[in-house]
Amino acid sequence: MADVLVLRAIRGNARTLNLNSKKLQQMPGAVGRLTQLTSLQIKNNLLCQLPPEVAALSNLTVLNLGNNNFERVPQELKYLHSLQTLHLFGNKISEISSDVLDGLENVIFINLNNNRLEHIPPEIKKLQHLEKLSINHNLLKDVPKELCVLQNLRELHLGNNQLETLPEQIGFLTNLKELHVYRNNLIGLPEGLCRLRKLRILDVAGNQIQSFPSCMHEVPLQELYCEENPLLKKEPVIAIQDREILSLKEMSARIILSDVQDRDSLIRQQIHHYPEAKAILSTRNICALCGKWFLDMWLECVKFVDVKKKMKTSSNVQLLPVKILLCSYTCFNQRQSDMFGVAVQ
Ligand SMILES: [Zn+2]
């Protein structure tokens, strides 16, 4: 049956071919004679590999290999230089080899939902035209920072995975409009998220998030989904303050951080000889109250932002806990009335 369809397509010099749901265990090699083909649908079959003849489909822009039995992204795809849309959902894929990505430089949309991927290779950065990447329902443990160089990326779907963090560099995805990371194990979100000024939809439901990055309320979101997270609540608790004693490291760091702000500082002139110290000091925080620099998070406070009024975002939460860092109890005791300390349970 499939062979008849392919032969008919060859005779008619077809540009599209539909071989969906034909119980195929192999793609007919004659497909390679359809060099004018731009769209090939062959989902819902039993394929686990592609014939080498596929390499001849140099005009193919859409390929749907969804719901088959592939265990890796087929190597033959690297010859399909015109490919723009690639569906590989519903397979058993646990591996993307980096050389496949070499040939997919024109791809705009990849759908790898419902597979078994644990990692995205760093070579993903080669897909410079990628606008939409969907890897929902996999086993992803991390997101490579190299993904964050994809300047054209508009939608990133990584829901239902095992992510614990997102890279700080996510802030470089300046064209991102939608970020879906629901049902992971995220314990927080990177501050870099605040740089995504085109972000309209953020879905972080079903994670372990307690509070949001400090400038989150400045991102003009239209939709925010954050249900099923242990978000901090605005509830009064009694707290006893211990006397404040800084560690020696923190004390020295604060002295140096204060000193290097002076243009004539000797330490400022010499610090580049000590790259390790420089790296440590570069992780400094700024006190939200006195503006002084400090190293380790001393006191984490939150401010509650009214999502509907202040952000004009549609969401199922009314008050969004947004992080604020303070340098000392002195500042904590002088804080404004809208800043709340976080109770440790
Ligand atoms: Zn302070």
Question: How does this model look, in words?
Answer:
Keywords: Leucine-rich repeat, Repeat. Residues 109-202 form the Disease resistance R13L4/SHOC-2-like LRR domain. The chain is α/β, with parallel strands linked by helices. The chain has 2 domains: 2-225, Leucine-rich repeat, LRR (right-handed beta-alpha superhelix), CATH 3.80.10.10; 248-294, no CATH class. The chain contains 7 helices and 16 strands. It has helices at residues 2-11, 98-103, 248-259, 266-270, 275-281, 307-311, 329-333, and strands at 16-18, 39-41, 62-64, 85-87, 109-111, 132-134, 155-157, 178-180, 201-203, 223-225, 285-286, 293-294, 299-306, 314-315, 319-326, 339-341. The protein has an 11-stranded parallel β-sheet with strand order 1-2-3-4-5-6-7-8-9-10-14. The chain has a 3-stranded antiparallel β-sheet with strand order 15-13-16. Strand 4 (85-87), helix 2 (98-103) and strand 5 form a beta-alpha-beta unit. Zinc ion (ZN) is lined by residues 287, 289-290, 292, 326-328, 331.
Layout of secondary structure:
Blueprint: H1 2-11, E1 16-18, E2 39-41, E3 62-64, E4 85-87, H2 98-103, E5 109-111, E6 132-134, E7 155-157, E8 178-180, E9 201-203, E10 223-225, H3 248-259, H4 266-270, H5 275-281, E11 285-286, E12 293-294, E13 299-306, H6 307-311, E14 314-315, E15 319-326, H7 329-333, E16 339-341
Parallel strand pairs: 1-2, 2-3, 3-4, 4-5, 5-6, 6-7, 7-8, 8-9, 9-10, 10-14
Antiparallel strand pairs: 11-12, 13-15, 13-16
Domain Disease resistance R13L4/SHOC-2-like LRR: 109-202
Organism: Pyxicephalus adspersus
Keywords: Leucine-rich repeat, Repeat
